[in-house]
Amino acid sequence: MTQQQDLSDIHLFLPCETPQRWIEAALDNQSILLIDHAHCERKAASTAINLMYRYPDRLDLQAKMSRLAREELRHFEQVLAILKKRDIPFRGLSASRYAGGMRQHVRKTEPGQLVDVLIIGAFIEARSCERFAKLSPFLDEELKKFYLSLLKSEARHYQDYLKLARDAANGSIDERVAEFAEVEKSLILDEDTEFRFHSGVML
Q: What GO terms are given for molecular function (predicted)?
């Protein structure tokens, strides 16, 4: 599958485009963008490892999450290297509303809980991919090249999460995807007071 096909699938999956106001905020807050990006990569690896521990009997999940965790940690290391090169100290940041807002809607019983967590993973990876692609034309050459290099793996991660969700549900997940799409859309289009990689538009 080509990069253009990956992005086309992602645009069909996501309920809305990233607003231009977020792009403008990202360009005005590039240090925060990079610091939060590093946190996102580390959290993605942690989520994958947690899923491996929680569902040891699901062998396809084990294989896909093991690979995903390694790739996300590699991306984390790459962002840290960029931060160091630019003399930007890595530090703690408050989390955006995005992931937490999605997780509020996760069902409490299995297999619904696993299905929902995997669907959220798909949205996080798809939105990350869309933002890398949309932001890259406005960045310096180093960051542009780096963000474009992430598109293929992020697109595959989104597809892996969706496949695992369908397998866990043992049937259609279209209704749940549609419900989470509405939640995701509101989180992306609503106003936020703090800029983050997955924040909404800025006040």
A: tRNA 2-(methylsulfanyl)-N(6)-isopentenyladenosine(37) hydroxylase activity
